[in-house]
Amino acid sequence: MRVSRVQAEENRQTVINVASRLFREHGFDGIGLKDLMKGAGLTQGAFYKQFASKEDLAAQASERALESASGRWSAAIAASPQDPLGAVIAFYLSMGHRDEKMDGCPVAALGSDAARQGTDVKAAFETGVTAYLEMVGNMIAGTVGQKTDDKAMAVLSTMVGALLLSRVVNDPELAQAFLNAAGQQVRETVAR
């Protein structure tokens, strides 16, 4: 049965959305095309009509995941304009975010995997990281001390690193300690 162009595009978007979540949960190499397509409710044969390769899908899914993450940051900022950094710290450095690997930060979930991928995946991550840095820079603009760009990089590095470390330990108290320490360090960095 032939699929309309509209349905084909909807199917393609579904695959990208599902892949953005499943890649964050399993890694780029931790899930095959058959399981990705099954997760989207489609057959593996449909994949080749929509994507040039698994790397093509990985790049598009990474872009989607990073856009979604930036949207969460924007929503937190909009919900707390009097303390936007505090709002981002509250959701990003939380146990809830630590535990939601499928919808959580793609940089923490896939950063080391992305470093081993091709230029298209890395370009998607670079765009996403740049968007994060811009948001952090806007939140801390006007602080004294270091250049805003340097502070934004330190803030982002601290937050991503803490989230990653909190995810690799079993002990919830140690995980929470990483998140708490990072939140304090971010506030101190911005205050300098």
Automatic annotation (TrEMBL):
InterPro entries: Homeodomain-like_sf, HTH_TetR, Tet_transcr_reg_TetR-rel_C_sf
Keyword annotations of the record: DNA-binding, Transcription, Transcription regulation
Pfam family, one: TetR_N
Domain HTH tetR-type as annotated: residue spans: 9-69
DNA-binding region: 32-51
Entry annotated with the keyword Transcription: yes
Protein name as it appears in the record: TetR/AcrR family transcriptional regulator
Organism field: Mesorhizobium australafricanum
